[in-house]
Amino acid sequence: MKRTVQEIADMLGGTVIGDGSRVVTAPAPFEDAKEDQVVFAGDASYLKRLSETGAGTVLVPEARDDSDKALIVVDNPRVAFIKVMEFFAPKGDVTHKVSPRACIGEQVTFGGPVEIGPGAVICDNVTLGAGCRIFPGVVVEEGARLGDGVTLKSNVTIGHDCILGNRVMVHSGSVIGSDGYGFAPEGTSYRKIPHTGIVQIDDDVEIGALNAIDRATSGRTWIKRGVKTDNLVHVAHNVEVGEDTLLVAQVGIAGSTTVGNHVILAGKAGISGHIHIGDNTIVGPDAGVVKSLGEGEVVSGTPAMPHKLWLRLISLMPKLPELKRTVSRLEKRVSRLESGE
């Protein structure tokens, strides 16, 4: 596929500076691009390095006249670049294709054409919306409901009666709707707590590889619209995760916690159970949150504290051995003074 710079600018609603007739064949990384490819320079550090990229076309956030490249000025170069990637590599339409090696149960409802790969198991009373792509080895248990355009990569499991909205993507190895970790002490042993609820995942959610999202004890574990999770994330029973929230790799959220909208939980953050994380809050990497947080807080460390306070504490830690020696010397001097030596 080939397009001119002007055609790409028209698609993006951008403005061309330079040669609009230049031909573009593909998007490319900034460092490895060729003359007929397009890259983006989203911030000042890349704008200063325009001469270093081999690309002949660059998406930029502001007009400039110090480059011999064709520039396309757009409001958000990163998002514009994603649109260019989608344009040059469009997804094909789903045509109804069910592998003869797939196992399809009784009373399975198709809302339109779907693709089901070999080794997939679609149990009884499952509903698949139009345009679903079910990769090899997927298991969709009885009574689950999938919306339109859902993609389940290889070896995903969707537990019984769970609900997935439209355009949900679940990457390989993830389990949606496993039992929660619930056991009640009974003498010297533990009795398993039944988990009779479901997992509900709303529209436009993307779940990374090897996630585990537990079904509710009763009611639902709820992943709301636009949530994106990285690989190796665990969400426990009855958790609610708000819209457009990001869960980075190895985040763990304990049971019955609610996470607000537009929250970022950085890598390896651990969230205790039965607390609330307010909207627009950021939890730093490897932090441990043991109590509720309000809206717009930025916290780090264990236990989690305001990020600026954590930075001060971290800067003091290397000095602690010398401070201890100083305090010990002062204690000895005070002791000698008090004893009259």
From TrEMBL:
It comes from the Bacteria. The active site is at H237. It is an enzyme of class 2 (transferase). One of its GO terms (cellular component) is membrane. Keywords: Acyltransferase, Lipid A biosynthesis, Lipid biosynthesis, Lipid metabolism, Repeat, Transferase. Its EC number is 2.3.1.191. GO terms for molecular function: N-acyltransferase activity; UDP-3-O-[(3R)-3-hydroxyacyl]-glucosamine N-acyltransferase activity. It catalyses: a UDP-3-O-[(3R)-3-hydroxyacyl]-alpha-D-glucosamine + a (3R)-hydroxyacyl-[ACP] = a UDP-2-N,3-O-bis[(3R)-3-hydroxyacyl]-alpha-D-glucosamine + holo-[ACP] + H(+). Residues 22-86 form the UDP-3-O-[3-hydroxymyristoyl] glucosamine N-acyltransferase non-repeat region domain. It holds the Pfam family Hexapep. GO terms for biological process: lipid A biosynthetic process. InterPro entries: Hexapep, Hexapep_transf_CS, LpxD, Trimer_LpxA-like_sf, UDP_GlcNAc_AcTrfase_non-rep. CDD domains: LbH_LpxD. Pathway: Bacterial outer membrane biogenesis; LPS lipid A biosynthesis. Gene3D superfamilies: Hexapeptide repeat proteins, MurE/MurF, N-terminal domain. Catalyzes the N-acylation of UDP-3-O-acylglucosamine using 3-hydroxyacyl-ACP as the acyl donor. Is involved in the biosynthesis of lipid A, a phosphorylated glycolipid that anchors the lipopolysaccharide to the outer membrane of the cell. Belongs to the transferase hexapeptide repeat family. LpxD subfamily. NCBIfam families: lipid_A_lpxD, PRK00892.1. Homotrimer. This is UDP-3-O-acylglucosamine N-acyltransferase.
